[in-house]
Amino acid sequence: MKPFGVLTATAAPFLRDNIDTDIIIRIERLVGLMGHADLGHWCFELLRYLPDGSENPDFILNQEPYRQSEVLLAGANFGCGSSREGAVWAMMGMGLKAVLAPSFGQIFYNNCFQNGLLPIVLPRTSIEEIISELRPDSGGTSVTVDLERQFVVSPGGREYTFETPPLRRQALLDGVEADDLSLTLKREAEIAAFQARDRWRRPWIYESVEVLS
Amino acid sequence: MPGRTMFQKIWDDHVLADLGDSFYLLHIDRHIMHDLGGPGGILSVEQRGLRIRNPELTFATADHAISTAKGRAGTSGVGVRLLEGLRTGTRSAGIRLFDIGEPVQGIVHVIGPELGLTLPGALLVCGDSHTCTHGGIGAMAFGIGTTEVTHVLATQTLVQPQPKTMRVHLEGDMAVGVTAKDLMLHVIGAIGVGGGSGYAVEYAGSAIRNMSIEERLTICNLSIELGAKIGMIAPDEKTFAYLKGRKFAPAGELWDRAIAYWRALPSDADAEFDHEVEIQVDNVAPHVTWGTSPEQVLPVDGMIPDTATLADAGKREAAAAALKYMGLQPGRPIIGTPVDWVFIGSCANSRISDLRSAAKVARGRKVASTVRAWVVPGSESVKRQAEAEGLDHVFRDAGFEWREPGCSMCVAANGETVPSGQRSVSTSNRNFVGRQGPGARTHLASPAMAAAAAIAGHIADVRKFEELT
Ligand code: SF4
């Protein structure tokens, strides 16, 4: 995971509520055992391409200047549904680095941090304001995301503060060495002690799966 | 100090370390894997040069990418590779696999409770969002992502933010023809698919107490469609009776100790929840979805809504897109909408009671000539039981296809899809765009409603069918 610095990039308006992870990446693409980066081509497949495989000109990420978007200005409950982490891989594969939404699917939200895609919770009114300031004709479509200081700057220069769980924020700022697994592995002694205590307190959790062959 | 919720009691008993800012390191009691995520999960541990810490606490089965045709014919090349990967991976790691052909294979969330792997008060995870299903037994269970699967395999723990708590009271008696599925679709319609986001939901009230364990599993299954990762129901005597004697349930003296612990799990009378909702169930009708989100739902005798009247811009845009995708006209009754496919199955509704209720409608009738209808039992055990009761004959005689256990058309991961533009009534839990195949139009409903649609050839009100009582 790369450290998340200050990001200034094009932001695309995509305000539809309840965009589920099936829409972000179809299950068939994940069954195909593709590399994470290759999934980018299939991100938002059903919205992005027409049945004949050509691009759907109506889809915002197929339009200039939003083709280069690294930030998504999304609707409520973004990433709801299936737990597939491929949704995050696909979005990152197509170059997205941050999503601003009024709320997120919980599993998706967790998955984002595991991979370095930044989910930012902002009130819908703030997201609508940012969208209202987008000027695609004159190139005014970029927003700045500062994770360190936790604010977003709209194209018109307005600032919006946001909050990220401190543990998650630090991991994103630090990059790879701070992932959950590296940190938990250092706690092996605590895990062993917990299990020893727990075996005594709730023996059935362990013994009922051990006695059977 | 106020009493504690069941959620809090279970959470506290699993905290290994407080990481600050309401993040905790939790112990994982049970981990279940399937063919889609399992092989990669095991591989990722090896790639990091780690070992699987507690292989005896992880279990695996094949359900997502396998064919449900007779003899498993038609499992795709990739499906076969995944299954092979799962076999090799579990063998080398020492993880127990319930393979196809074995008497207990089935959908992860169906076999967990069946085998007694799912226990009250246990913390169970699986790389699948419908893991909340297991909350019907009184477990704390939730879906996790791929990176988290690696974390669990390597450490038998997981880092999680503590959610808030919500209690949904379901009070009253369900009317004839109304099932747990209808009730949850109603609840999702009322609270919204984002309404449970950030919460662990406990379902309570007389309607829940009166439900069978299988109905409770259906209720909890749909929690993620409410946005909640966790749904749970307090264990009671019914739960204990259900678990007793199951393959991996504790026995003898362990059982007595477990039961004493389980009896103390229900939320204390003075426990406080962050949010409480009360819903009267007496007047809830059978429900069916009209859109591409489970919250886009209506009573079967209702009218397809006029989306232009929705005040909320996000909802309006989503609803308009949904109607277009579904090919429906606002303001018309949903009853009578012609149907091409019917799918009875999935971890929401593929247990024996589901098949019995569908068979009741199908018995002595014929599937409409314009409809293809499948019944896919949730597990080998369900299939055996159904066959012992002759339900397979009831379905076959009526013109349904009787298939092998698996996820099948719920997720379309193995080419078992509804063709583009065709309309299906499905007992699964997701009507998302393309969920049952690109361009497929899905209406979620109960098993009885799905059977009724198969017979009628269009969306129908199961209450109009006799022999229901
Ligand atoms: S039946 Fe459907 S929802 Fe359930 S585990 Fe399988 S794919 Fe997921």
UniProtKB/TrEMBL annotation, chain A:
Q: Where is the Aconitase A/isopropylmalate dehydratase small subunit swivel domain?
A: 31-124
From the UniProt record, list the coiled-coil ranges.
Answer: none
Gene Ontology annotations for the cellular component aspect, listed alphabetically:
3-isopropylmalate dehydratase complex
The chemistry this enzyme catalyses reads: (2R,3S)-3-isopropylmalate = (2S)-2-isopropylmalate
UniProt keywords, alphabetically: Amino-acid biosynthesis, Branched-chain amino acid biosynthesis, Leucine biosynthesis, Lyase
Query: Is ATP-binding found in the keyword set?
Result: no
Q: Give the E.C. number(s).
A: 4.2.1.33
Pfam families to which the protein is assigned, alphabetical: Aconitase_C
Give the EC class as a word: lyase
The source's superkingdom equals: Bacteria
Q: Does the keyword Lyase apply?
A: yes
Give the GO molecular function terms.
3-isopropylmalate dehydratase activity
User: Which BP terms from GO are recorded?
Assistant: L-leucine biosynthetic process
Check the record and name the Gene3D superfamilies matching this protein.
Aconitase, domain 4
Named in its record, the pathway it takes part in is: Amino-acid biosynthesis; L-leucine biosynthesis; L-leucine from 3-methyl-2-oxobutanoate: step 2/4
Subunit and interaction comment: Heterodimer of LeuC and LeuD.
Q: What does this protein do?
A: Catalyzes the isomerization between 2-isopropylmalate and 3-isopropylmalate, via the formation of 2-isopropylmaleate.
Q: Which family does the UniProt entry place this protein in?
A: Belongs to the LeuD family. LeuD type 1 subfamily.
The protein's name in its UniProt record? 3-isopropylmalate dehydratase
Automatic annotation (TrEMBL), chain B:
Q: What does the record give as the reaction this protein catalyses? A: (2R,3S)-3-isopropylmalate = (2S)-2-isopropylmalate
Q: Which EC number applies?
A: 4.2.1.33
* Alphabetized GO MF terms: 3-isopropylmalate dehydratase activity; 4 iron, 4 sulfur cluster binding; metal ion binding
Biological process (GO), any one: L-leucine biosynthetic process
Q: Which residues bind [4Fe-4S] cluster?
A: C347, C407, C410
Domain Aconitase/3-isopropylmalate dehydratase large subunit alpha/beta/alpha as annotated: residue spans: 8-457
Give the pathway listed in the UniProt entry for this protein.
Amino-acid biosynthesis; L-leucine biosynthesis; L-leucine from 3-methyl-2-oxobutanoate: step 2/4
Give the note describing cofactor binding and stoichiometry. Binds 1 [4Fe-4S] cluster per subunit.
Q: Which InterPro entries match?
A: 3-IsopropMal_deHydase_lsu, Acnase/IPM_dHydase_lsu_aba_1/3, Acoase/IPM_deHydtase_lsu_aba, Aconitase_4Fe-4S_BS, Aconitase_4Fe-4S_dom, IPM_dehydratase_rel_enz
- One family from Pfam that matches here is Aconitase
> Which parts form a coiled-coil structure per UniProt?
none
Which cofactors is this protein said to need? Answer: [4Fe-4S] cluster
Q: SUPFAM superfamilies under this entry?
A: Aconitase iron-sulfur domain (SSF53732)
Keyword annotations for this protein, in alphabetical order, are: 4Fe-4S, Amino-acid biosynthesis, Branched-chain amino acid biosynthesis, Iron, Iron-sulfur, Leucine biosynthesis, Lyase, Metal-binding
Q: Which family does it belong to?
A: Belongs to the aconitase/IPM isomerase family. LeuC type 1 subfamily.
Per UniProt, subunit arrangement is: Heterodimer of LeuC and LeuD.
Annotated HAMAP family: LeuC_type1
**According to its UniProt entry, what is the function of this protein?**
Catalyzes the isomerization between 2-isopropylmalate and 3-isopropylmalate, via the formation of 2-isopropylmaleate.
| Name of the protein | 3-isopropylmalate dehydratase large subunit
Species this chain originates from: Bradyrhizobium macuxiense
Q: Which gene encodes it?
A: leuC
